[in-house]
TrEMBL record:
Domain CbbQ/NirQ/NorQ C-terminal per the UniProt entry, residue ranges: 178-260
Top-level taxon in the UniProt lineage: Bacteria
Homology family: Belongs to the CbbQ/NirQ/NorQ/GpvN family.
Protein name per its UniProtKB record: Nitric oxide reductase NorQ protein
Source organism (scientific name): Flavobacterium aquicola
InterPro entries registered for this protein in UniProt: ATPase_dyneun-rel_AAA, CbbQ/NirQ/NorQ/GpvN, CbbQ_C, ClpA/B, P-loop_NTPase
Record-linked Pfam families: AAA_5, CbbQ_C
UniProt domain ATPase dynein-related AAA: residue ranges: 32-165
UniProt keyword terms in alphabetical order: ATP-binding, Nucleotide-binding
GO molecular function: ATP binding; ATP hydrolysis activity
Length: 263
């Protein structure tokens, strides 16, 4: 869990009307859903918007063990007594923070049930263990993200859940914008940034490789950082871009040969 009030504006390159849509979502107290592949800037965008709105941000990275108890809270033993400890969702509801459920579809089904009453006109949180209902603070906002293409048919959000949100799709930026992002994030030269983006787009179009995930902007940023710190370019691309994509030896060799030709 990450809870923070960001003092320095995170770098984010606007690619459409997403900032304007988020502001209207916040103003009208409508939950916001970000859809798209991993590493396309969803989390950075939420950090940027929390800073723009001057709101505390609480981030939960969801996984298959994330339960409603993890979000709402639990009783703990402290000394000779049992006390209640608020979870991050309860804290956000009370304090008026933005809570960001990253990859919400990965969480257990009871998490979706727990947030339903916060995603409609009621804006309340039920705490069964305390027998309490908490009205959300006026500044509270629920934001979630998920990857619609990941393990399709297995970990999807139900239409009844998706329709409770305003939704915006994120994808990899246009090459020129992605190169600008790399230059800003890593301080590498523009020519190297363009080559990294060209490699990414080449691999993204190699659908015949059957990669579970493809090259994200995040991987390119990692490559750019270690290139800027002095690692040879080809080695940097191998370890930061190619190796994280697959463990298949033949695919690894094919991707390395491809990258060697391009940088």
């Amino acid at each position: 869990m990450l809870a923070d009030t960001l003092t320095i504006a995170p770098y984010y390159h606007t690619v459409g009307k997403e900032v304007e849509v988020f502001e209207h979502s916040y103003k009208n107290k409508i939950p916001f859903l970000l859809k798209g592949p991993t590493g396309t800037g969803k989390s950075r965008f939420v950090e940027y918007m929390a800073h723009q709105l001057d709101r505390k941000l609480i981030t939960i990275s969801c996984h298959e063990e994330t339960s409603s108890t993890d979000l709402i809270g639990r009783f703990i033993i402290k000394g000779a007594e049992t006390i209640w400890l608020d979870g991050p969702l309860t804290t956000a509801v009370k304090e008026g923070a933005i809570i960001y459920l990253d990859e919400v579809a990965e969480a257990r089904p009871d998490v979706i049930v727990a947030i339903h009453s916060l995603t409609d006109h009621r804006r309340v949180l039920f705490i069964d263990k305390l027998g309490e209902t908490i009205k959300a603070h006026d500044d509270f906002m629920l934001v979630a993200s998920f990857n619609p293409g990941y393990q399709r048919g297995f970990k999807e959000l139900k239409p009844s859940t998706r329709q409770r949100f305003i939704a915006v799709s994120f994808d990899y930026p246009e090459p020129k914008i992605e190169a600008e992002i790399l230059v800003n994030e890593t301080n590498i030269d523009h020519d190297t940034a363009k080559k990294l983006v060209a490699i990414a787009n080449k691999i993204r179009n190699l659908t015949e490789l059957g990669l579970t995930e493809t090259v994200s902007t995040r991987l390119l940023v990692d490559a750019g950082k270690i290139i800027h710190s002095g690692l040879p370019k080809r080695l940097a691309v191998h370890v930061a871009v190619v190796e994280p994509l697959t463990d298949d030896l033949q695919t690894l060799e094919a991707l390395k040969d491809l990258c060697n030709l391009m940088i």
